[in-house]
Design a protein that fits this description.
Largest sheet: 9 strands, mixed
Radius of gyration: 19 Å
Number of helices: 13
CATH superfamily of the largest domain: Periplasmic binding protein-like II
CATH architecture of the largest domain: 3-Layer(aba) Sandwich
Helix content: 25-40%
Order of helices and strands: EEEEHHEHEHEEEEHEHEHEHEHHHHH
Number of strands: 14
CATH class of the largest domain: Alpha Beta
């Protein structure tokens, strides 16, 4: 069983088979060290239902990965973005915004996308705010390298913001600490429980200004240094996504353990939003969405250099 390092999250031995040891950083699920010629690759992803779903087959040894084993390191997306800038992990989930800054280390995999097709992160408030009011509002954002923040800047221009942990933003807005907040992950489905109201759906906005393109929020990136092994490793990652889609109930049961505040029905809905055909392959529409997003970001001065995305091969 590959090791899984969970930083600050309530992941237990029941969630993954294998031996368990604990340390200061979190919980380490240890691999079988008796396997000869094992090659261990670090795989950073967020502890969220969509990532758990797409990597389930790797975590549970449901597919053959030959000599490769994957150490799953679970961290929030903004932490992963910052580590990607330094090229820390062999494979990492990364915001498309952040990928513009880490291309010297990584190629973008042609699968693993979290794509919003006329939906996406939401800007919400407790009061009766209008879009025009956001210019003067104090807005909580889940990180300045997230795609959600980038698209909010494209939609609103400059605004007053502070960063906050993504899973704390709903409560911070409901408690009056901020006038509004940008919600990612499962907060997109649960914010109304706190009496919050949607001001703007950023995926819907992006589709409206681009003629219906999907909003590419995040993807999986692979180190350029893997060289000739890139296509093989990419193929195993794609097989894991396909396994989850083909064994949906099994993978959903696993992903539900990572759904903060989600019941089975909402977990199913959330996974369906962000693990789908776009996740198996960006396709022409998905690639066009990436190109258009980063083109607009560069033209607005939000990304310093023009970005020519290079996708990794797959075997």
């Amino acid at each position: 069983m590959p090791p899984i390092l969970a930083r600050g999250y309530n992941i237990s031995k029941r969630d993954f088979p294998g031996n368990v040891s604990t340390g200061g950083a979190g919980v380490l699920f240890s691999p079988d060290h008796n396997m000869p010629d094992t090659r261990l690759l670090t795989l950073g992803h967020s502890p969220d239902p969509d990532d758990a779903f797409m990597h389930y087959a790797l975590a549970a040894d449901r597919i053959d990965t030959a000599e490769f084993r994957f150490q799953h390191i679970l961290e929030d997306i903004e932490t992963l973005n910052k580590k990607a800038l330094r090229g820390e992990y062999d494979i990492s989930a990364v915001s498309i915004h952040a990928f513009a800054y880490c291309m010297e280390h990584y190629l973008l995999l042609p699968h693993g996308a979290s794509m919003g097709d006329r939906y996406g992160p939401k800007i919400v408030s407790k009061g009766n705010f209008k879009i025009r009011d956001l210019k003067k509002a104090r807005i909580a954002v889940p990180g300045t390298m997230t795609t959600a923040y980038l698209v909010a800047r494209l939609a609103l221009g400059d605004f007053h913001f502070e960063t906050a942990p993504f899973d704390a933003i709903p409560d911070l807005v409901a408690g009056g600490k901020f006038d509004a907040g940008i919600l990612i992950h499962e907060g997109q489905l649960t914010y109304q429980r706190l009496g919050l109201q949607q001001i703007l759906d950023l995926g819907e906005w992006f589709a409206g200004v681009t003629g219906g393109l999907p909003l590419p929020l995040g993807g999986n990136a692979i180190k350029r240094s893997l060289g000739k092994d890139t296509a093989r490793v990419s193929g195993y990652l794609k097989k894991s996504i396909a396994y989850g889609l083909e064994h949906r109930e099994e993978a959903l049961a696993h992903s539900l353990k990572f759904g903060r505040g989600l019941d089975a029905a909402l977990n199913d809905q959330f996974v369906g939003m962000y693990v789908n055909n776009f996740t198996l392959d960006y396709g022409d529409r998905g690639r066009a969405g990436v190109k258009e997003l980063l083109k607009r970001a560069h033209e607005a001065g939000l990304v310093p250099d023009p970005v020519d995305i290079v996708f990794a091969g797959v075997e």
